[in-house]
Design brief:
8-stranded parallel barrel; two-stranded antiparallel sheet; 9 helices; alpha/beta; 284 residues; globular; TIM Barrel
């Protein structure tokens, strides 16, 4: 594992496609609300935000117009790195999921396998994965490999052999989704030990597992994703007032460990993000 003194990258997953206001009044929907929360997370210590699109009523969308409005609103407030989801919501086809990539965010996710997602199925056939990888290549976007189970690591490495991904990769281990790999420290250690040594990694624990796994990552040289997409509680019975409060909790862990937080510039270097646009723009 990486030295636990390396700068810590905190990613705030502030929206998601599943968390609704019926669950927590603090989840943002509109581009302005998302940008306001991105600024709060940046001020709290996050170096990157992970973005899904929403309609004003909270309905998930991956349309380019919505993502352009979100990207522009964030850029007007903060220089935090912006990562787009290509997962979208269960049931979207691949072109819906990736139409906003022409905006050239700093990073975008790539899930390298199909997984049960509660009562539904998050479909990612190999042709779908290749389509997304090619679109990322086309626009020069650095991928974050989303891993819900062990075989997804092998598929990502296979795509490196095919020339569709470039090593070293950055992995995000998403643990605790019902139907996928469980959110245990043992599982996380196994995944970390299964990736090439020159790769970087972060962890996103679901629900009550979010902060314990974040603490483990802080202590073992990994990076952390927290936010209302994955967990709406700061502690049992206490809703987080926003993703920024979850970021603040990770910052507290890092300070106890005397681990420095990564600045945006340091996160760019650690994640090997080159030539990313600073504003959303039309391509070609």
């Amino acid at each position: 594992m990486t030295e636990p003194t390396a700068p810590l990258i905190i990613t705030a997953a502030i929206v998601g496609a599943e968390t609704m206001r019926e669950q927590t009044p603090h989840v943002p929907y509109t581009p302005q609300e998302i940008a306001d929360e991105a600024l709060r997370c940046a001020d709290a210590g996050a170096a990157m935000v992970h973005i899904h699109g929403r309609r004003d009523d909270g309905t998930p969308t991956q349309d380019r117009e919505t993502f352009a409005a979100i990207f522009d609103a964030i850029r007007q407030r903060t220089d935090i790195l912006v990562q787009f989801s290509t997962g979208g919501a269960v049931g979207m086809d691949v072109e819906q999921r990736i139409e906003a990539l022409s905006l050239r965010p700093h990073m975008a996710t790539l899930t390298t396998g199909t997984v049960n997602f509660g009562d539904e199925v998050f479909m990612n056939s190999l042709p779908t994965i290749r389509t997304i990888a090619k679109r990322l290549q086309k626009f020069g976007i650095r991928p974050e490999i989303e891993v819900f189970d062990t075989g997804m690591i092998d598929t990502a490495l296979r795509l490196c052999d095919e020339g569709l991904l470039e090593s070293p990769l950055h992995f995000d281990f998403v643990l605790g989704v019902p139907g996928a790999m469980g959110a245990s420290q043992r599982n996380l250690e196994f995944l970390v030990n299964s990736i090439p040594e020159n790769c970087t990694w972060s962890v996103a624990g679901m629900g009550r597992h979010e902060l314990p796994l974040a603490r483990f990552a802080v202590e073992h040289g990994g990076h952390v994703r927290v936010g209302l997409e994955d967990n709406i509680y700061l502690k049992k019975g206490r809703l987080a007032r926003g993703s920024f409060e979850l970021v603040e909790k990770v910052v507290e862990y890092a300070r106890r460990r005397k681990r420095p937080l990564a600045s945006v510039a340091q996160a760019r270097e650690l994640l090997r993000i080159d030539g990313a646009t600073e504003t959303a723009k039309t391509i070609g």
